[in-house]
Every structure is written in C-alpha cells, then in structure tokens.
Write a structure and sequence with these properties.
Strand content: 35-45%
Shape: globular
Order of helices and strands: EEHHHEEEHEHEEH
Number of strands: 8
Helix content: 25-40%
CATH class of one domain: Alpha Beta
CATH topology of one domain: Aminopeptidase
Strand order of the largest sheet: 1-2-3-4-5-6-8-7
Structural class: alpha+beta
CATH architecture of one domain: 3-Layer(aba) Sandwich
Bound molecules: coenzyme A
CATH superfamily of one domain: Gcn5-related N-acetyltransferase (GNAT)
Number of helices: 6
C-alpha cells in the first residue's frame, strides 16, 4: 500500500490505489454522505473512473490536484477522502474538501483531515489563501471550517446543480498570516 503522505493522531492520508475501489464505493454510494455534494451516489463504474482520473492527476507536472485517501492508522481501513487543489499557482490560492464514511462521523476525524490539508497547503505547498465551500445546511462541515479559523466570506447563490436542485455555497477562506497566528 502507498506510504502515508500526512499523518494525524487517528488518520493518515495516502495516495489512492486501484484496489481501493470497494472502499470508495462504500461511502460514495451512501446518500447521507453525498447529500450536500455535487456528485453521487456513485456506482462501480463512476468510482473506477474517479480512481483513474485521480491516478492521472497525480502524474501531472506541476501537480494541481491532490485527491487522497483517508485511512485509519490503527486498522489501515480507508474511511474517506481529502482533497487539496491549486486554484491559482500564480496567486498561491488553493481549496480543500473532505468526505468520510458515515460510521466515522462525530469522532473529530473530519476536523483532523481538514487541519492536515490546511497545514500541508500552507507549510509544504506555499499557499497564501485556502478556500472551502459548504452547503449552508451542512452544519458539520461548516463547523469543521469554523474550527479551523476560516472566515465565512459570503454565500454564492445557486452555485451549482446538486441532485437536480440549485444549491447555494458558503465560501470560507483562511490566509497564510491567519494560519500562522
Ligand atoms: C463533514 C464531515 C467530514 C464532518 O466530519 P466529522 O468527523 O463528523 O466532523 P467532526 O467530528 O470533526 O466534527 C466537527 C464539528 O461539527 C460538529 N457537528 C457534527 N455534526 C453536526 C451536525 N449535524 N450539526 C451541527 N454540528 C455538527 C461537531 O460537534 C464538531 O464540532 P465541535 O468540535 O465544536 O463539537 C462529515 O460529516 C462528512 O463526511 N459529511 C459528508 C460529506 C460532506 O458533506 N463533506 C463536506 C462537503 S463541504
């Protein structure tokens, strides 16, 4: 299995492998997990296409998408995903996202993953600003972002179509100096 890229207290982040398909399917096909996301629920074909895209993204030079697996350190089980994207290399702006299997919610893991991604973005990738969006009804995700010290900069109305409905997005951001402080 791929070595860990980042390590927290409970979970580590690593590159995906083709054999992760079933573990990804376990959360990607769960309607509760994908309720506020622009994708899903997904089937085997979509998950395999996702893993192929992620593998191709990982080979890009320079790399602009880091879509990584979240694994439990104690069991090695894949329980979700973290994502860090470079939105603009010139302006050192990136964004993050995260998703966890439902049976892993409520244990502080979402906050841990988001913290790992933000620390990585500022410390190792040299970003100046990191953004994240969430559905205003997604209280858990909103709280994850607030706990990171991210500021809510407003609401993008009808930001995208999700499950056949227009969906608003709250825009959160953290600047390099705020992260240092
Ligand atoms: C968002 C998500 C990753 C949160 O993960 P998690 O591991 O449950 O989050 P944490 O345990 O770190 O909890 C974060 C905070 O949210 C709070 N919280 C959790 N569920 C909540 C809810 N339904 N309403 C209000 N607050 C909630 C927790 O109490 C905690 O705050 P606290 O530390 O002040 O008590 C998880 O719910 C998930 O995977 N959701 C589906 C995918 C998704 O929506 N991703 C985000 C897209 S923007």
């Amino acid at each position: 299995m791929a070595p860990w890229l980042l390590e927290g207290k409970t979970v580590a982040l690593r590159e995906y492998a083709p054999e992760d398909s079933q573990a990804v399917l376990a959360y990607a096909q769960d309607r509760d997990v994908t309720r506020y996301l622009p994708w899903g629920p997904e089937g085997t074909q979509e998950v395999d296409a996702f893993l192929a895209r992620v593998a191709a993204d990982a080979l890009q030079q320079p790399r602009t998408q880091y879509e990584v697996a979240v694994v439990r350190k104690d069991t090695g089980a894949l329980i979700g995903a973290g994502r860090l994207g470079i939105l603009s290399a010139e302006h050192r702006r990136g964004d993050i996202g995260y998703v966890l299997r439902r049976d892993s919610w409520g244990q502080g893991i979402g906050s841990e993953v988001a913290r790992l991604l933000v620390d990585w973005g500022f410390r190792s990738l040299g970003l100046h600003r990191i953004e994240a969006t969430c559905d205003p009804r997604n209280h858990a995700s909103r709280r994850v972002l607030e706990k990171l010290g991210m500021n809510c900069e407003g609401c993008r109305r009808d930001d995208f179509l999700s499950h056949g409905e227009w969906r608003d997005s709250l825009l959160f951001a953290l600047l390099e100096d705020e992260w240092r402080a």
